[in-house]
């Protein structure tokens, strides 16, 4: 089953509502169009979760596709104890972590020089040029984003994953807790600690007014 892409923007406030519940009920009854609508409503959120785990758009796209196929196959097991999106994100996150583990194992067996110009890298914090800023300011802005990106990438996985999920603006703390299988309080602590560490390291390299 090939899923059509969606450009619809979703937010963490798009919890299971009456429309989504009805779509799930119809999809469970075999309505492929209803499931396609669920894909459209949730694809961005699933993709951003996979991207946070993997840091590669190509890998994230593969995981997104795989997550929806798995959700379709297991749709009859969804009982509505949580919002459909929360259930779906948990599937996607598990698949992304499994993919990341397999990538790490492959890298451990293969010596591949890093190409800084290669596409598909850690692109979550790429800066968008501002036409109203001088060229010098834009260069400095890019340098700052590069530093932040590198520092986040260097965080322990637990802190990095939680910070990227929270920083994406796509998910509530409850959804992140469900994805990571940790208490909400732990999510909040990890986000706070990750931010503290990044700010501390930025100041240590000369960004005195960071954050």
Helix content: 55-70%
Derived from helix and strand composition plus strand pairing, the structural class reads: mainly alpha
Helical region count?
8
What do the pLDDT scores average to?
Answer: 75
What is the β-strand count?
0
Q: Report Rg.
A: 19 Å
Distance, first to last CA: 45 Å
- Morphology call: elongated
Largest sheet: none
- pLDDT < 50 stretches: 1-16, 106-140
Q: Please state the oligomeric state of the protein chains shown.
A: single chain
Q: Beta-strand level of the residues, as a percent range?
A: under 5%
Give the ordered list of helices and strands.
HHHHHHHH
Notes on the protein architecture:
The chain is an all-alpha fold and 211 residues long. Helix 2 packs across helix 4. The longest helix has 26 residues. The radius of gyration is 19 Å and the shape is elongated. 27% of the residues are buried.
Brief descriptors of the model:
mainly alpha, 211 residues, single chain, disordered N terminus
Structure summarized in a few sentences:
The chain is mainly alpha-helical. It is built from 8 helices and no strands.
């Amino acid at each position: 089953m090939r899923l059509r892409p969606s450009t619809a923007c979703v937010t963490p406030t798009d919890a299971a509502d009456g429309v989504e519940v009805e779509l799930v009920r119809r999809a469970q009854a075999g309505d492929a169009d209803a499931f396609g609508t669920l894909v459209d409503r949730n694809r961005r959120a699933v993709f951003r979760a996979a991207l946070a785990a993997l840091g590669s758009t190509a890998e994230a796209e593969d995981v997104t596709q795989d997550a929806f196929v798995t959700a379709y196959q297991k749709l009859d097991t969804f009982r509505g104890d949580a919002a459909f999106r929360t259930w779906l994100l948990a599937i996607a996150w598990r698949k992304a972590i499994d993919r990341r583990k397999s990538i790490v194992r492959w890298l451990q067996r293969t010596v591949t020089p890093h190409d800084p110009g290669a596409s598909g890298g850690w692109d979550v914090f790429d800066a968008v040029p501002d036409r109203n800023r001088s060229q010098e300011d834009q260069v400095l802005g890019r340098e700052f984003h590069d530093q932040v990106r590198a520092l986040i990438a260097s965080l322990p996985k637990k802190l990095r994953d939680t910070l990227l999920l929270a920083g994406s603006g796509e998910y509530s703390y409850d959804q992140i807790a469900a994805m990571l299988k940790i208490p909400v309080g732990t999510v909040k602590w990890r986000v706070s600690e990750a931010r503290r560490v990044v700010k501390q390291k930025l100041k240590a390299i000369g960004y005195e007014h960071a954050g």
